[in-house]
């Protein structure tokens, strides 16, 4: 399913939309206002013009009333009333009163024409109370007019205003009016009937029309015939097809008699027609006439049009100003935002030095400042991060190198540790076996020990006491010590165990143990020691060892105050033996002597060759007497000893000197000196004898061919 | 700015559409008028033209005749190259709805042409009876001579044996009015003294002397003649009542010293109480700076009459002629104007008035 389309609205677009929406709303309000103004003006005009129409109808009606009054004033004229009174007594077939007719003609026709060149009354007729024509400006054909509506109306109500009528004899249209003429006592004399001329009606309507100013006026009868119009018209022409008539009928429900206004289009122009009925007009109320007052809608609505124009101009100004302001606002908002966006884009592309230079004291300025601060921190963080990354990368590289090296080392180490017979293993901080070489595995396997597994501890591999020791060693190692121990294994091998802490980044992560078989070395050491401490010819301790061991025994003897004796033994005439028999025989003599001594001495006794043919014997825990006896036995044994030579067995003798430790202050050297002194005496005394130093008490100083002192 | 671009385009299109709508060409209603704008009758022709133009502008400002602008072409009949007939043909070439002829001379001269071409011809400020005699397409909008008589006679004293001197321009119009006046005096038992004079007469001293013994003098002529006769009468110390035809009701006469007390047959336009005319007078005088007279009123009222006749109807000569054939009454600048059914003379009433104190007072 494709993603929903999300149109992107820029700040400018949003502002433009908001501005346009606002302007549309404003325009709508303006339009509503203008429309309201139009309607208000229409209503005001319509009402005003309807009132004007009413006023005009009232004026026309007033004129009619005035003419009725004029007719009625006939009864004020004595000659009229007298003749009327006489006429009422005349025979029915009497002809018209010519004098009265002339009076009527002069009063109502000629006078008007003389004065104004026009006529008001098309006809005036006097009828007696019987309905008979008495006199007339133009005598009608029928003398008896008592059946006429106007006669009956006038006789009954005093005045009658009939509708418009056409008099064929007069060939004239007019408004039929009639008034009852009464005498001074109020007694009816008859009726004066007149036909107010169409011309007069038009003039009166025109006069009334001046009230409305420059407008169209149409006066229409109840049956939609035109009586008057400010436009060219034909008197009593039917106008029911006129737009304003149809509209008015529609507005009033197709019934005459209503005040209102309508708007129609005439001649391509909108026109507002107010109309009023004559119901409230004097004398005309029952006739149902309607007066229309029309004006060009633009004139009526000119104020609204002016308002519309002003509003339009204002709207245009507001529109332009609004768009301009919106543009400025958009510019003031969008541009800095775009600058910030562009700066952000450049920062995203790597240019961390991008900053937005916006010195504004508003939210945009705050945003720019925050952006710059963020950019600074980003840059700093980036640099720091870059540096850290570099460091880390270097470290990683180093670590990789280290790892590589470590790997190489490990490989090398593995190779190394596997290539060696030394025991090598590594334990972690918990003393668990992490790594070991095959020497370890082989050793254990050879000894029938359990297999070596990763994670096993010393306790798993060794007896408890041993395990404790090892654990202590591990502990010490993990604490940073580097203990080295030497052990003899069960197979007799001597192993050194060198413990070393394993460090990683300055932290002890475990311990390594390197164990080397030093059995050979020890043997060699012993051998060396032996060589370093024994006489290579005879195997007796050499002087160094003898003196060292003698010192040890001397100190023990002093510590425990136990007797200790020293013998000095020297082969008699050894030089002559070498000279006689050769050094080889000499060496054999020395060897034989030493072997004989070793055989005769105790294991605790120490025989040492001090030089040449001079030997010393240390007899710890041996008092003088016993020492003397030992010495004597040695002398005798050696005297009996023979060495095979080419010349037969060779016998030799020895001289002995015996001294004993005397007190705490005595020393080995001093004792040896005494023993050597005793030996000298023995030599001096004839050799093959023992001389005991006088410090050795309770001992015969000299033997037969033995002790001497 | 993305959305601003289409909005700007829309705005431009809207303005263009409005402009185009405003530029939409509507067929005008063409009217042609020929009248003397130079020569002795120049003032008549000028006033008539100004009246026509005032009404045309007035109607056009309201949207025109049935939403069509009126296009009025005025040709100086005195300066038309090739003569009046050529001017006629020139304006006819534009197919006007009708032709307006100002003054009797122009109207009578153009009548045969218009009748032959079946073109509606309206004579304004045209008194010549011949204009509408046996006419089919020719009409007049100006009072007939007969209308002058009652209004002028209203200025006569009610005496029965009145001697009335009638100084009249010796043309059909003058003769007709003069005869009507004389007949009336005769019927009242009086005596009429008829003294014609030519259009070019300038010295009226003899005429004044001749009329010196009459009870009243009626002058039927153009305003210039009327003034000259009045001056001559004054010079002759004439003390009788003076009457004048409708030309004596021109505003130029009101301030003339010799016109003081003159009884004239005046159109209703000079009545300040006649509001319709008063409003038009104010508009005209503000527009032209000249006094409003009956010639201008004739021009104004004719166009308004035309507008009233054709509103909401077909604008054509046939429609107009049919409307005219029915006759009408019309409450115009001159009061109740009427055309009888089948008639060709649109008449308006002349009222009895008198020049008093530099103004016209209606009786």
Automatic annotation (TrEMBL), chain A:
**What Pfam families does its record include?**
GGDEF, HAMP, PAS_4
The EC designation for this entry is 2.7.7.65
Q: Where are the transmembrane segments?
A: none
> For the PAS domain, which residue ranges apply?
409-481
**Catalysed reaction equations from the record:** 2 GTP = 3',3'-c-di-GMP + 2 diphosphate
Q: What SUPFAM superfamilies does this protein's entry cite?
A: HAMP domain-like (SSF158472), Nucleotide cyclase (SSF55073), PYP-like sensor domain (PAS domain) (SSF55785)
The record's listing under CDD domains reads:
GGDEF, HAMP
Per UniProt, the enzyme's principal EC class comes to transferase
Superkingdom classification of source:
Bacteria
A GO cellular component annotated for this chain's UniProt record is: plasma membrane
InterPro entries from the UniProt entry: Diguanylate_Cyclase, GGDEF_dom, HAMP_dom, Nucleotide_cyclase, PAS, PAS-like_dom_sf, PAS_4, Rev_trsase/Diguanyl_cyclase
**Protein name from the UniProt record:** diguanylate cyclase
From TrEMBL, chain B:
| Organism superkingdom | Bacteria
Q: Where is the Leucine-binding protein domain?
A: 28-358
Name of the molecule in the record: ABC-type branched-chain amino acid transport system, substrate-binding protein
Q: Which UniProt keywords apply?
A: Amino-acid transport, Signal, Transport
Return the PANTHER family for the record: LEUCINE-SPECIFIC-BINDING PROTEIN, PERIPLASMIC BINDING PROTEIN OF ABC TRANSPORTER FOR NATURAL AMINO ACIDS
Q: Does the keyword Lipoprotein apply?
A: no
Per its UniProt record, what CDD domains does this chain match?
PBP1_ABC_transporter_LIVBP-like (cd06268)
One Pfam family, please name it: Peripla_BP_6
GO BP terms: namely: amino acid transport
Q: Which family does it belong to?
A: Belongs to the leucine-binding protein family.
InterPro entries recorded: BCAA_transport, Leu-bd, Leu_Ile_Val-bd, Peripla_BP_I
Q: Can you tell me where the transmembrane regions are?
A: none
